[in-house]
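Researcher: I've got a protein sequence and the SMILES for zinc ion. Could you write out the 3D structure of the bound complex as structure tokens? I'd like something to compare against our soaking experiments later this week.
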Amino acid sequence: MPLGARAYDIVIAPDAIDSAGARLAAMFPGARYGIVTDDNVASAQLPRLAASLDAAGLAHSEILVPAGEASKSWGHLQTVVDAILAARLERSDILIALGGGVIGDLAGFAASIARRGMDFVQIPTSLLAQVDSSVGGKTGINSSHGKNLVGAFHQPRLVLADLAALETLPPRQFAAGYAELAKYGLIDDEDLFFWLEANYPEIQAGGPARGEAIARACAAKARVVAEDERETGNRALLNLGHTFGHALEKATGYSDRLLHGEGVAIGMVLAHRFSAKLGLAPSQDAGRVEAHLKNAGLPTTLADIPGDLPPTPVLMDAIGQDKKVSRGALTFILTRGIGRAFIEKNVDPQTVATFLEEIR
Amino acid sequence: MPLGARAYDIVIAPDAIDSAGARLAAMFPGARYGIVTDDNVASAQLPRLAASLDAAGLAHSEILVPAGEASKSWGHLQTVVDAILAARLERSDILIALGGGVIGDLAGFAASIARRGMDFVQIPTSLLAQVDSSVGGKTGINSSHGKNLVGAFHQPRLVLADLAALETLPPRQFAAGYAELAKYGLIDDEDLFFWLEANYPEIQAGGPARGEAIARACAAKARVVAEDERETGNRALLNLGHTFGHALEKATGYSDRLLHGEGVAIGMVLAHRFSAKLGLAPSQDAGRVEAHLKNAGLPTTLADIPGDLPPTPVLMDAIGQDKKVSRGALTFILTRGIGRAFIEKNVDPQTVATFLEEIR
Ligand SMILES: NC(=O)c1ccc[n+]([C@@H]2O[C@H](COP(=O)([O-])OP(=O)(O)OC[C@H]3O[C@@H](n4cnc5c(N)ncnc54)[C@H](O)[C@@H]3O)[C@@H](O)[C@H]2O)c1
Ligand SMILES: NC(=O)c1ccc[n+]([C@@H]2O[C@H](COP(=O)([O-])OP(=O)(O)OC[C@H]3O[C@@H](n4cnc5c(N)ncnc54)[C@H](O)[C@@H]3O)[C@@H](O)[C@H]2O)c1
Ligand SMILES: [Zn+2]
Ligand SMILES: [Zn+2]
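Model: Sure. Here is the predicted complex with zinc ion in place.
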């Protein structure tokens, strides 16, 4: 990840966790470690990491939070920061985020505010975290007013994406991460999207194409972030599908009814359909996107979400409170077709509301 | 305050609040404002600010917290951030901190994490905030593990120090702020300290020397911060008196028994006495510092603190948890005499404990 003095490596390897101890010992002589993780990852992957740190003679303590989006809360933020202070980790010590995007966002934010900022390392264990959330330095928690509304930009010092960790990831979570992977193709790389369509069976089965897909996604994300770390410009393209997606996540209470990546999958299809309705994009592209995401086991329509959704005005309210608003006008990532997304800052809320009514 | 692209003005004037509206309107076209303040300042100074914003046609909402150090807490941080989001302030809007150091630290931190960072303006109304906390970008809250252990570096866009506001500040608070003012002389400017000694009556009475003293203090702080924004080097000199001071504040429960500036006053005298004991500084200087601070109405010894203090091991524990520690060794700001402070990273905890025992 090229960011001048704050540049960092992204290591993608089957055994990145097993070699973590040796790597960290070389990078941070004398540092102690705090490992933030959740229950699931603690049983599935923490023993490997602990063994690796032990073998390198690195002192470490563990900070456990419950698995799930609900841990991106004020209460758990305070718990993690308090645990950092109780363990007497100092500014020169290292916090490790071992887990999915929830752990990365929570631990990264805690690292950014404990003692006004300590270094941290991302060890993403979900596909979503490996292709998206662990790279780029966005950290944060949710508020009752919406997702990710509280947080900081805080870059990790290192990202270790361990391919073997994905073996214990539940299939539904794998699919959710795949939505963010496909996103990079949809934004500005139709070749990547077509390659994903063709190679999906191998990616799904864990063949060599999986590592390649993750590497291509990280490279795409790193390029966008390097050009616009603070999201004043093109970084907003990464929000393709997210304005609709966040509103649906809010409407389903950030619950198991809809995972983040699932919301993004539906949101990307809606962004394509909305763009087609505005006459900006060919509607066959929306169909092709929907077909591929469905094939990858993802929901693609509002009807795919179990249970009732709130009425359109409530969804519109959530869309308006999403942080990608500027002085009242709605900002959306729209598209001219696969691989041709763009930022539109002047979307009329009424047009969106009408569109939502039509597709319900 | 010279900080490259993030440089900002520090305005010191008798009517800085009254002209705030016009100034902000010119700097931030189209922005809306949230004003964070406490009960005391809300009655004493908020009407002036509200009138000034109203006259300039600027929309504003108010976020009130109780007066006192206890507001630098997780709970009040969440309250302020929630209020920012509830008021739908956006990244391009402005949060105003109207109050003393507590409000500046709390509101500045809230601004740094709401929507991953919004701009804020400091309007310091206590002497301490005008000469110290409003300049330099340190923001934060306290933890049960110690003061200011959670926070961020977040520079304001503008500092407006209103001299008239000091007319409503209680005398004890004025004295506490004066300790931080005198600190700049003690660190590296003996001329400033001697000038303060000579001009104290006029500063105290609110004559022209007051504005000059505040301007000299801000200039001194800005110079140090510009050279070392993130406190990797000389910025630590600003902590003269603070390691002892923070431990005493913790020992007295951050209560009215000991104000921050009062703890700093005692701490600065102790730093001089400890340095003299180590044979580093002439002990007459310690006496001269003590005499001047006492004359300014400040406590200067442990015995001046009402009520009982915990035993020395408990104070030592607080000193060890202070954030200015590096891999276990104690860092102290020591001195070779008035205007000759320096950073010592290898202070033996046992020497400190013995010193504390002797002076109790
Ligand atoms: N910071 C960013 O730039 C960014 C980008 C995208 C998403 N996000 C955030 O990421 C979060 C979603 O991330 P996520 O989908 O990884 O969620 P998650 O962290 O909740 O992980 C999903 C589930 O998989 C489990 N899990 C993770 N790795 C596992 C493994 N190897 N074996 C077994 N179980 C495992 C977790 O315990 C959890 O139950 C959201 O909060 C979203 O806002 C952040
Ligand atoms: N960020 C930094 O760099 C930095 C530096 C030094 C101190 N601090 C912090 O500053 C805090 C202390 O600041 P403080 O002494 O200003 O405390 P404070 O904010 O509590 O103000 C002191 C008291 O004076 C009242 N007050 C303030 N202005 C007034 C006015 N014009 N009229 C009437 N009443 C007024 C307040 O309501 C409060 O009761 C501490 O929390 C300390 O940690 C921060
Ligand atoms: Zn996402
Ligand atoms: Zn201070």
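Model: Chain A has two domains: 4-167, 171-359. The pocket of zinc ion (ligand 4) is lined by residues B 132, 180, 242, 260, 264 (CB under 6 Å).
Researcher: Great, I'll pass this along to the crystallography team.
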